[in-house]
Amino acid sequence: MRGRPELYTSYEQEMGLLNTPAKRAAVAGLIAVALTLPFLLQDDLLQLLAVGFVAAIGAIGLNLVTGYAGQVSLGHAFFIAIGAYTAAAISGDPDKRVIGYGITFLPLWLLAAGLVASLAGLIVAPLATRLRGLYLAIVTLGLVFLGEHIFKEWSELTGGPGVGREAAVPEMFGYRFDVDGAFFTREQKLYLLMFVLLVIFALLARNIARSAVGRAFAAVRDRDIAAAVIGVGLTRHKLLAFALSSFYAGCAGALLYTVTGFFDPGSFNLLLSVQFIAMVLIGGVSTISGSIMGALFITLLPRLTRELPALIPAVSAQSTGAVNVFQIEAILYGLLIIGFLIVEPRGLFGIWIRVRNYWKAWPFSY
Amino acid sequence: MNELLQSLIRGLGTGSVYALLAVGFVIIYKSMRVISFAQPAFMLTGAVLVSYLAVEVNFYLAVLLGAGLVALLALVVERLALRPMVGKPVFVVAIITLGVDIVIRVVVNSFIGREVRQIGDPWGLDTFRLGSIPVEKRYVAMMVTTAVLVTALFVFFRYSRIGLAMRATAFDQEVALAQGISVGTVFALSWAIAGALAAVAGVFVGTGAGVDQQTWIVALIALPAIILGGLDSVPGAVLGGLAIGVVQSLVGTYQGSYAPWLGQNFAVVAPYVVMLVVLLIRPYGLFGTREVERV
After folding, report:
1. In chain A, what residues touch B108 (CB-CB under 8 Å)?
2. What CATH number should be reported for the domain whose range is A41-361?
């Protein structure tokens, strides 16, 4: 086998997580770069990247249900909200005016947030198993509106609209991630925490996707009747897809607001769901690495558009200007979704595949 | 009793606006099998266009002009963003319409600004008395307009050549193509009609209260209406729209005193609750066609 790294002698080898030396080198390189970044970048950029990593966890969740299992969900914001409030309630200060139980141990509230969200997913899923395609999209859209109403009204939990409450407290064995420490700043700690969690969640999702469950999801997506005929349980796998996706959404929601520290029930609206859809579509449908790319891209987009006023004088940085950065940002979401779907349906991941294939065969064109 | 009647009239009035929006959704769905999430943007565009035009010309002329311009906009959108996607999975096309919606709304929002824009309609909040109950004129205008437009559409689909072509396309695209029907024209026309209907609906949504940047959410209430009526039935959309309007109005009137634990403004989300219940009992709506699977 020496000198012929791409010769596979078993199925396990071919289906391996990192089945080529190039992949192994690239992943090792990326992890090394990600681990050195906190010592090179400014704190505000680190904070943004930390949010991006959490968003990536959420995007992976949406990709599991929409990309792999083919069940369109516009309700991701609802599950993210459930996760965020579960975590905040468990770790919140019991003496404040909003519900809080004061258990700040991170793995505990993270798991609880995921589990409660996936329970909610299971409650919604029976509707999903009866409906297909766009009916499902409309139902999940209705879910977002109902959720928004509940969270705005239940002010003992959420603090009420316009006021909000503090997010979950990230603490593990007495070590706080959200305060400046002796060795690391708050942003460096959060960045590293989110990065480690993202690696864990991505690895889990990748393993789900390449196992029997992942293949069953793909079968349900591609032709559900054919899948049922060859013995794939439709109801079971749709339920599983929703539960898994909501679990990821719940965890992402729990973590998302620890970075900014504060959140408001008004933030879980349709726009949040659309942002996650955009992450999945721009990154690449049914790829894990694509979801991560898409999430980082969408999170960093506002940062990029904020540089525009310096380049084009007609663009104003204030929200009152005729043409301002916020409008350009929103238009870019829309245009990027349309553009990617028409020109490159495989998203950023597809662009990467093209580049890779070009250089693989270089200097020949095929 | 008076309260109930007033609430019913209000419900039928707003319901007929939902009906207009719902018919737009259904017409697009019938021709392309896609739910167009761009309808809120068309509605908002119509309302804002009229609010600018009504200052210059007569209100009714402004509504006609506004509807025409939005129909043109819908044609452009269909040609640029939708036509390249013919034959792609419906989910992808639906998400494209979502993208279109965002882009158009951002542009239109910059014309609304921060304050509320008045439509410039002649009705305002004026009332007249019908027997013993005061009736707002705008609700009567909504009902009459919807009745006229829906009848006109019915006549158009039933008796005109292109209406027949649209029905044929809705029935089976390939067979329609084989009969020499230009399916592309049908797609374009259905978008134009839906756009114009949404624009008129937008004007009525804006009467009384005016339009602001949050008005677009009203258009999404047409979604429960089409689920209730069935995605591919125009009469279903009209009835669904009226029913949703009445439910919303009744909930708004009585929920505060009978079920205060549901929270303030529950009427805003009541249509979505109705939708969930309908989907549990009759997944294809009241008048929709049940999907038949051939294996």
Report:
1. none
2. 1.10.3470
